[in-house]
Amino acid sequence: MTQTPLKLFNSLTRELEEFTPVHEGEARVYSCGPTVYNYPHIGNMRAYVFADVLGRTLSWKGYDLTHIINITDVGHLTDDGDAGEDKMEQMAAARAQSIWDIAKHYTEAFWADVKALNIREPAKWSVATDYIDEMIDFAKGIADRHCYELDSGLYFDVSTVADYGRLARAVTEEGEGRIDTVAGKRNAADFAIWRKTPAGETRQMEWDSPWGKGAPGWHLECSVMGEKLLGFPFDIHTGGIDHREIHHPNEIAQNQAFCGCGGLSEATNSGAKIWMHNNFLVERSGKMSKSSGEFLRLQLLMDRGYHPLAYRMMCLQAHYRSELEFSWEGLGAALTRLKRIVMAIGPLKDAASGTPDHPKFAPMREKFAAALADDLNTPIALVALEEALAVKTVDARIKRAVIASHQERTTGLEQGISCLGGRRLGSKIDDGWTLGGWLRNEPRASQREHHQDGAREYRQSVFHAYSSWGGGTSAARHYCSEARHCASSSGLMTCTHAERLFRSTP
After folding, report:
1. C-alpha span between 134 and 148 (Å, rounded)
2. Is residue 275 part of a domain?
3. In a domain? residue 292
4. What is the C-alpha to C-alpha distance for residues 465 and 480, in angstroms, rounded to an integer?
5. How many CB atoms lie within 10 A of CB 225?
6. 223 near 271, Cβ under 8 Å?
7. Angle 453-455-460 (CA atoms, 0-180°, nearest 5)?
8. Which residues, including other chains, have CB under 8 Å from residue 506's CB and lie 6 or more apart?
9. 63-108 pLDDT, tens per residue?
10. DSSP states along 53-66
11. How many other C-beta atoms lie within 10 A of the C-beta of residue 15?
């Protein structure tokens, strides 16, 4: 733990605020989790890398962390503005599968990505359908004063709470709404907290309620699970910046109604003291949208030869509130940087435990602590990490203590020693990540048959991966020259060809 005060940017107040826990010595954090109707894309996973760094930093600062991440398996519509079909029901119908099987499959896929990125397990994965009774009770408690019923469901009247939309800045300085009312609702921004099953239809997920058979709204779920598991107010609520516009303002409104709280000039009235949002990961080809049918998954990065921690490194190289552009070249650079850190840490693995208190490391330790305390400034923290690793003529025990106790654990790169040294990270990537292990894997036919632009990207990614893992051997150097040639040529270099080159080189 360090004494440097932790300051975090509160999206609700638009200010940096010193973290002061609601409950002394504790940190209670709720993170909006995935809707498990499809695989997560790498942009989705940025939110959990950010939340993981936040949680690690709070633990490092000495707080007893309780972190909750929800699993949305019902209620999230195809349009975040409360329109369209339930995403889960829609996918189940498209796949002709049980909605419960859909939820199980994609939940497990998400957990595999969490493990691969070395994201720590939360205190609890809260599954929405485990809290249906609590959701109905919550809705009953606010219905008389804050809701009204339509044929389609029970709707929340946003005019019944103060400062609706402040988080998204959806209201002008004069307090006038910037949206018009629509037929069927009192206010255009009103949202369903319980959606009735249409007459003559049967949903796979539906429950009896005072308003008829149906299912809860997406926004209701997070309010209920946050209050049930952490209590109002809790310390920090996180999510992607897309949640800042609709989902979180609606969640806040429900929290206000439940607590009988006042306006949002006092942030604790929102249900959480601090609301934090990571910015988007953008990819210029448009492959960050699941609606395209082809989107960037972590598994695709791994299939193309990149270790998953290279993507974690890529995220850490940008501040979480900054927009981050994805490119294969950028990912290759992150992998190279990660490899250099791992090579520097490697000799320290077998050193005995020491003490981090050494004057040579004082500037780096201070720089690192100040960076994390400054709203999780991970780009600067990484520089401090590298500067500490570059210190010469210091006992390995001391350097190991500095890296382990002050730097590795907060960045989440501590597994780099083992997994990048050739050991296995988990069942998802049991092929091993040594050069030889990677070479033995033949690319999938779909990769070999990729369209021209994709093939060029693949060739480039192969080169980046091999050049990073190749080390200093003559075989690796020969391979890299061949890979560079192939990356600029018209044909794909398969792993079989690469292995032949590698094995034939003295």
Report:
1. 19
2. yes
3. no
4. 10
5. 25
6. yes
7. 100
8. 474, 475
9. 999 999 999 999 788 777 677 788 888 888 888 899 999 999 999 9
10. HHHHHHHHTT-EEE
11. 11
User: Is the same domain home to 277 and 314?
Assistant: no
Q: How many angstroms from the chain centroid is the CA of residue 96?
A: 29
266 and 357 together in one domain: no
Which amino acid would we find at residue 77? L
List the one residue out of 43, 94, 109, 100 whose CA is nearest residue 74: 100
| Residue recorded with tokens 């004082």 | 362
Q: Are strands 234-240 and 26-31 parallel, antiparallel or unpaired?
A: parallel
Question: Tokens 């693995």 — which residue?
Answer: 349
Q: What count of other Cβ atoms lies within 10 Å of the Cβ of residue 87?
A: 23
* Cβ neighbours around 71 below 10 Å, total: 21
Q: Compute the CA torsion angle 100, 101, 105, 106 (nearest 10 deg).
A: -40
CB atoms within 10 A of CB 50: 26
Q: Out of 248, 282, 316, pick the residue that ends a domain.
A: 282
- Taking only the tens place, the pLDDT of each residue in 285-321 is 766 676 666 689 999 999 999 999 999 999 999 999 9
- What is the rounded end-to-end Cα distance, in angstroms, of the chain? 50
The answer on 123 and 91 residing in a single domain is: yes
Cis amide prior to 233 (ω within 30 degrees):
yes
